[in-house]
Design a protein that fits this description.
The chain is mostly helical and 201 residues long. 73% of the residues lie in helices and 0% in strands. The chain has helices spanning 2-24, 29-50, 62-77, 80-86, 90-111, 116-137, 150-163, 169-188. Helix 2 (29-50) packs antiparallel against helix 6 (116-137), helix 5 (90-111) packs parallel to helix 7 (150-163) and helix 7 (150-163) runs antiparallel to helix 8 (169-188). It starts with a helix and ends in a 13-residue tail after the last helix. The relative contact order is 0.15.
């Protein structure tokens, strides 16, 4: 039950971040919903395909779909003045979604009795996949493929869970908080991975 709550928080957070970016890019109403849903569920669909689960599992997440729908709708009807203030929270919503979905992806892989490598990949794809697709559709360069350490924290979740397949709910809670904190610290201090070392003429 506790983990289900975290998952729904992650769904709402990613839905809000996708919708906020669509509004910022001046998408129409349909585009806002599309980008919100893709941000929320895109990474999970890719993960399912890679670890051998049917992509159609998405449609079994009835509560999750309704949660995303409500979150996107609330974002749309938020007054413009409030929205500009909410933009400051975009990174925080993204951090919550990253943490919740990374852990969710790792747990999916553990349930399939996959190797630690697969657990890390599943965690990373679930955590960053939706945001990656969101950035591409919004016409932005995905920072996680350029210089941000965004994906590192997602991989860390998968690695920790892969090492401790019998991880408890309390440990998951602290991991959830840890990833959010690391993400926010990396944003605050603008931590980046090294850029390409060699430049070709």
């Amino acid at each position: 039950m506790i983990w289900d709550i975290f998952s729904y928080i992650g769904i709402a957070a990613f839905a809000i971040s996708g919708a906020m970016m669509a509004i910022e890019e001046e998408y129409d109403l349909f585009g806002v919903y599309v980008l919100g849903f893709i941000t929320t569920f895109g990474g999970g669909v890719v993960r399912n395909i890679l670890i051998g689960l049917p992509a159609s599992l998405l449609w079994e997440q009835n509560i999750g779909i309704y949660t995303a729908l409500i979150a996107i709708t609330l974002t749309i009807i938020t007054p413009t003045l409030w929205f500009h203030k909410w933009k400051r929270w975009l990174v925080f919503f993204d951090a919550i979604g990253l943490s919740a979905f990374s852990i969710q992806g790792a747990l999916f892989a553990v349930d399939q009795h996959l190797s630690i490598h697969a657990v890390v990949v599943a965690s990373t794809l679930t955590g960053i996949g939706g945001g990656l697709i969101r950035d591409i559709l919004a016409g932005r360069k995905p920072l996680l493929l350029k210089e941000d350490v965004y994906a590192v924290w997602s991989m860390l979740s998968g690695f920790i869970i892969g090492l401790h397949t019998k991880i408890t709910d309390i440990e998951l809670f602290f991991l959830f908080i840890l990833v959010i904190m690391l993400r926010m610290i990396s944003v605050h201090y603008q931590l980046k991975l090294p850029l390409k070392i060699m430049k070709y003429k």
